[in-house]
Design a protein that fits this description.
about 230 residues, alpha+beta, five-stranded mixed beta sheet, two-stranded antiparallel ribbon, 5 helices
C-alpha cells in the first residue's frame, strides 16, 4: 500500500499558529452565537404566553416577530463567520477595512476586560479597501493584536491603521500602558488569566511571520508594532 504524501512540517507549523490565534477569538465568537439565542428563547416564551392569554394585539405580535427576525439575522451572520475554522472552505476575499473591523470586533471584548482597548485608526475611515484573502489576513491581524496585548508591559490601546503609501498593508500599533489587570477596579486579576495560563502557547513574531510566509503574505514586527502586507 502506498501512503499518501503527508503535509510538510512547515504546513503543520502554520496550522498550529493559526489554531493558537483563532483559539483566542473563540470566546467572542461563542458569545455572538449564544447571546441572540438566549434573547430569542426568552422572547418566544413571552410571545407564546401572551398569545395564549389572548392579550397581544396583532400589531404587537408582528413587532415581536420582527424582533426575533433581527436576532435570527445576527445569529446567522455569526454562524457564517465560523467558516474561518473550516479548512475545506474555499478562500474568500474581502476589503482590508472589513477584515480589520472583524479583527477588532473579535479581539476587543476579551481584551477590554483586561483594561486594553482595540481601535481602528480614524474609526476605520482611513483603512484601505483593497481586496485580499480574508482568512489569512484575519489570522495575522488577530495574531498581531494578541502579540502586542500579551507583551510583558501590556499597552493601553492597540490601534489598527493604514501604512502610508501602501494600499495592501495594515499596521498594528501599541500605545500607552494598560492598568495592571483589573486591580484598579477592585477586581481580582486571577479572574482574567492570561492565555498561557489557559494552556495556549504564547504568540511570537517569528511564529506569525511563518504563518504569513506560508500564505504568501509579508509580516514585519518590532517593539510595539506589527505590519501586515497582503499577498
Amino acid at each position: 500500500m502506498t501512503m499518501p504524501d503527508l503535509p510538510s512540517s512547515s504546513a503543520w507549523i502554520a496550522l498550529g499558529v493559526q489554531h493558537a490565534v483563532l483559539a483566542r477569538a473563540m470566546p467572542a465568537v461563542r458569545h455572538d452565537l449564544a447571546a441572540p439565542l438566549s434573547v430569542m428563547r426568552m422572547g418566544t416564551t413571552v410571545l407564546k404566553r401572551r398569545l395564549a392569554d389572548g392579550e397581544l394585539p396583532p400589531a404587537q405580535a408582528v413587532e415581536r416577530v420582527e424582533q426575533l427576525e433581527t436576532h435570527l439575522a445576527s445569529l446567522t451572520d455569526s454562524a457564517r463567520r465560523l467558516r474561518h475554522w473550516d479548512l475545506q472552505a474555499p478562500p474568500a476575499s474581502a476589503p482590508l477595512r472589513a477584515t480589520a473591523q472583524l479583527a477588532q470586533q473579535w479581539a476587543q471584548p476579551l481584551l477590554a476586560l483586561r483594561g486594553l482597548a482595540v481601535e481602528l485608526a480614524d474609526g476605520g475611515d482611513t483603512l484601505p479597501d483593497t481586496p485580499a484573502a480574508q482568512h489569512l489576513l484575519l489570522c495575522l491581524l488577530l495574531g498581531a493584536v494578541h502579540l502586542l496585548a500579551e507583551a510583558p508591559a501590556a499597552p493601553a490601546c492597540i490601534r489598527i491603521g493604514p501604512v502610508p503609501g501602501q494600499a495592501n498593508a495594515l499596521r498594528v500599533q501599541a500605545e500607552g500602558l494598560a492598568h495592571r489587570g483589573l486591580a484598579h477596579q477592585g477586581l481580582a486579576e486571577q479572574s482574567l488569566p492570561a492565555p498561557q495560563a489557559q494552556g495556549m502557547p504564547p504568540l511570537d513574531g517569528a511564529a506569525l511571520q511563518h504563518l504569513a510566509r506560508h500564505g504568501g503574505a509579508d509580516l514585519r514586527w518590532g517593539d510595539g508594532w506589527v505590519e501586515v502586507t497582503a499577498p
